[in-house]
Write a structure and sequence with these properties.
- It is built from five helices and two strands.
- It is mainly alpha-helical.
- It has a two-stranded antiparallel sheet.
- The longest helix has about 35 residues, at about 105-139.
- The chain starts with 5 loop residues before the first helix and ends with a helix.
């Protein structure tokens, strides 16, 4: 989603079914979400639902209305209609997975062996680079 123009922001903020508008996101009220799900059950297309509820779907990426509806439906299935009233993003998240730590002694010894081999290789490479210069001086 891209940043909204000032005109688009004002339009979205004037809609009573829009809870808040940020620079590049919109938070809809639970009432909007429930109405949208009901209209979707009646057979309306996601972009038509947004239009009917006063939100221009062209302000968003093409698949945005469809993804919103499927996300809201999943929340209702898991948590009931009360689930739409509470912001759920980030709840229970464990954050970004940490890199695998080297915990076992065997893994640490393997890592040391790899690093020592790299150091030896670089020493030999440097020695090969310096060798022709020393031969030039000896002639």
């Amino acid at each position: 989603m891209s940043n909204f123009s000032e005109k688009d922001r004002r339009s979205l903020e004037s809609n009573p079914l829009v809870e808040s508008v940020g620079p590049n996101q919109v938070q809809f009220t639970p009432k909007f979400k429930l109405k949208a799900l009901k209209l979707h059950d009646e057979g309306l297309r996601p972009s038509d639902i947004f239009l009917k509820l006063g939100v221009d779907p062209n302000l968003f990426l093409k698949e945005y209305p469809k993804k919103c509806l499927s996300r809201w439906r999943r929340i209702v299935e898991l948590h009931g209609t009360k689930g739409l009233e509470q912001e759920r993003r980030g709840k229970g998240s464990t954050g970004r997975p940490k890199k695998a730590e080297l915990k076992t002694e065997k893994a640490l010894l393997e890592r040391i062996a790899i690093l020592e081999a790299q150091v030896d290789f670089l020493k030999k490479l440097r020695a090969l680079g310096e060798e022709p210069e020393s031969k030039k001086h000896s002639r």
